[in-house]
Amino acid sequence: EDKVVQSPLSLVVHEGDTVTLNCSYEVTNFRSLLWYKQEKKAPTFLFMLTSSGIEKKSGRLSSILDKKELFSILNITATQTGDSAVYLCAVEAETSGSRLTFGEGTQLTVNP
Amino acid sequence: NAGVMQNPRHLVRRRGQEARLRCSPMKGHSHVYWYRQLPEEGLKFMVYLQKENIIDESGMPKERFSAEFPKEGPSILRIQQVVRGDSAAYFCASSPPRFAGDPHEQFFGPGTRLTVL
Question: Distance between CA A38 and CA A109 in Å, rounded?
Answer without folding.
Answer: 12
